[in-house]
Design a protein that fits this description.
This protein is of the alpha/beta class. It starts with 5 loop residues before the first helix and ends in a 20-residue tail after the last helix. The strands form 2 sheets. Strands 5-6-7-3-8-9 form a 6-stranded mixed β-sheet, sandwiched between helices. Strands 2-1-4 form a 3-stranded antiparallel β-sheet, covered by helices on one side. Helix 4 crosses helix 5 and helix 5 packs parallel to helix 6. It has 9 helices and 9 strands. Bound molecules: adenosine-5'-triphosphate and magnesium ion. Adenosine-5'-triphosphate binds next to strand 2 and helix 2. The site of adenosine-5'-triphosphate has 12 residues, from strand 2 and helix 2.
């Protein structure tokens, strides 16, 4: 793995205004119905420079989605400060969100779904329509503009969700396992589409995934989370397009992949409450190799 200077990772001390996303000592707990406190995010310090593509990986329940919801302003921190381009985050057209389930509005057609977030932005109808058509062209759905979600395949719905997240050119795009429910082939096509769109529009992207390969195929930087903390912060530093061929697996790609995968496996194995053990079982005495 390449040794990186803190400036390159974007977490060096310096003015918060230089970062697209800045977490400064952020913590967030939830109280479960039994009164138990869950520390979903625990004293996270993180800086993401503008235009960076960051992937977050980590075991189930380690706080990935909570971190995105804090960045979107959907959840407020208990301690510390979150800022987006120097200000408190607030949901709106400046931040695109994409979730694992499509969350399309069934009674709105494709254009209506993509333009929905812009309608509260004060833009004129003609400007919204122009943004929507441009974005639909970019994801190859221009001729499906008047169709309804029920008339689309899973991959097309996901492209509508991608168009909706990117319409109007948001500076920040937060993606929570956006391709997890797609078949392998559609998922690869979506990854290509996303990279092409990112190259064209250059938003700052934070992309949560359970797939180490997906993280390494897409991102400039991979964060490994565990127990509400960022435990590893890795610059990928490999040229794109990245193809994990057999030859690559032996090279730097394979080294990064093994490092991240071992980190996640150790985190899962060390946690007897992990979803992997059904939350009622216990971790084996000796780790699985
Ligand atoms: N609204 C909530 N109320 C209570 N607990 C919550 C809430 N949201 C998250 N949690 C808890 O906070 C912890 C982190 O949850 P989070 O959804 O951020 O994990 P995650 O890393 O996204 O997991 P997964 O990979 O399964 O999606 C979990 O223990 C979860 O049960
Ligand atoms: Mg999650």
């Amino acid at each position: 793995m390449r040794d990186v200077a803190p400036q390159e990772r974007g977490d060096a001390a310096g003015p918060a205004s230089g970062s697209a996303i800045h977490f400064d000592g952020v913590s967030k707990s939830f109280v479960l119905s039994g009164g138990e406190h869950v520390h979903a995010i625990d004293n996270v310090h993180l800086r993401v420079p503008a235009n960076q593509f960051v992937a977050i990986v980590g075991p189930s329940g380690c706080g990935k989605s909570t971190l995105l919801r804090l960045a979107d302003g959907l959840v407020a921190p208990d301690a510390g400060r979150v800022s987006i381009a120097g200000s408190a985050p607030k949901p709106g057209p400046g931040i695109g969100m994409m979730f694992q389930n499509f969350r399309l509005i069934p009674w709105r057609n494709v254009a209506g779904n993509v333009g929905f977030a812009l309608e509260s932005s004060g833009l004129r109808r003609a400007a919204i329509d122009e943004y929507v058509q441009k974005q639909l062209q970019q994801v190859g759905l221009a001729r499906w503009s008047n169709h309804y979600p029920a008339q689309l395949s899973g991959g097309m719905k996901q492209r509508v969700a991608l168009a909706r997240a990117l319409v109007g050119g948001p500076q920040i795009v937060l993606m929570d396992e956006p391709f997890a429910s797609l078949d392998a082939q559609t998922r690869e096509l979506m990854q290509d589409d996303l990279l092409a769109l990112w190259d064209r529009q250059r938003p700052t992207i934070v992309f949560v995934t359970h797939s180490v390969d997906e993280a390494l195929m897409l991102a400039d930087r991979v964060l490994v989370m565990g127990g509400g903390r960022v435990l590893d912060d890795i610059m990928v530093g490999l040229p794109r397009p990245r193809i994990p061929t057999d030859a690559e697996q032996a090279g730097p790609y394979g080294q990064l992949r093994r490092h991240i995968w071992h980190r996640i496996r150790d985190l899962v194995m060390a946690d007897p409450n992990s979803a992997f053990f059904g939350r009622t079982g216990s971790a084996p005495e000796s780790g699985i190799r």
